[in-house]
Every structure is written in structure tokens, then in C-alpha cells.
Amino acid sequence: MVRGKTQMRRIENATSRQVTFSKRRNGLLKKAFELSVLCDAEVALIIFSPRGKLYEFASSSMLETIDRYQKQGREIQADNSHQEHNMQQLKIEAASMMKKIEQLEASKRKLLGEGLAACTIEELQEIEKQLERSIHAMRARKVQLYKQQIEQLKEKGKSMAAENAMLRDKLGGSKGKKVPGLVTAMDTSEICDVETDLVIGLPEARSRWPATLFL
What we know:
The protein is mainly α. The protein has helices at about 15-40, 60-110, 120-175, 185-190, and strands at about 45-50, 55-60.
């Protein structure tokens, strides 16, 4: 016969309730004993019947187990309190950071010329001073960059001047040497100073009046 699923609610019949309590109590005590033996666990079980009768099981000492439980509970409570304190501190810091961010955003908008309608004369004067300090810092940085660029150009000019001097020295040393394959103006004049015969007229008339032209 298949047992039906037990409904988890109070048993109205007193006799059935007492029988069920006795059976479940004995089973629970047995399971506690098995857990302590099989797993080498420290187990303490306390049961009060509906009439107030005490049933208990302890694998070692009930008082020592209860004291250990209370001590562990106090430590957990202290840890939870410390964590709660840390959480509160973090919330306070986060709220402070958000406030600072909002102030910085408002200051940035004012520096950009936005939201100035609600500013007083003192606030506008302070914003003007901040802008002047910013402009002064930017100009100083720009001058510094210009000086660095000028120094770099000077160094580059010195390097190029040194290279030009080396090239001039090399060209001056090879000035009297003749480079193979290079035709000078004197060689060209010597090549051009040759004798050339030029005959004008028909082929059959060459023997009668030859003409010679020297270039």
C-alpha cells in the first residue's frame, strides 16, 4: 500500500499528534546520533514536547556545545555589525563623492559661461579670477613649448651645418682628382678640334670640283 504525501500542517487529532511526535522524535534523535558517529560532527539536539517535556541529545557535552554556539553567534553578530558599519561608512563616502561631483559639474558649467544667472557678484569675480589664472597657465605652457621647439630647431641647424662642413671637406679633397667616366670641357674641345671634309654637289660632279671645309 502506497503512503500518501503528508500535508505539512498541524494534526488536529490529539492522539494522532502524540503518536506522530513520538515517531518523529525518535527518528530525529537517531539521525542526530548517526550524524555524530559517521561524520565525527559535534551535534546537540534539544526537543520540547507539546506538554513541555525536554528531550535532548549531545555527542559530547550539551553545555559546552551551547557555549560554543553562543560564542559563535556573538562573533557572527560582531562581524555583521562591523560589516554594517563599513556599509554605512561607504554610503556616507559615496554621498560625499556624489556631492563633490555635482559641485565640480556646476563649476565647470559656470566656467563655460552656463548657469550664471543665479551667481552673485562675488561668485562672478571668483570665476573671473579662475579664468585669468587658467589663461596665464596656458600662456606659460605655450611659451615653454615654443622655447623647446626653438631649441630643437637650433640643434637641428647645428647638425645640418656640421654635415655641410663634412661634405665641403670631402668635395675639397677630391677637387684635383679625375673621376672616371666624367668628360670635362677641355676634353670636349679636343674632341671637336678635328678635320672634316664636306663635298657639295651631285656624286658625278665630285671629281671635277671637290670642296674641302675645315672646321
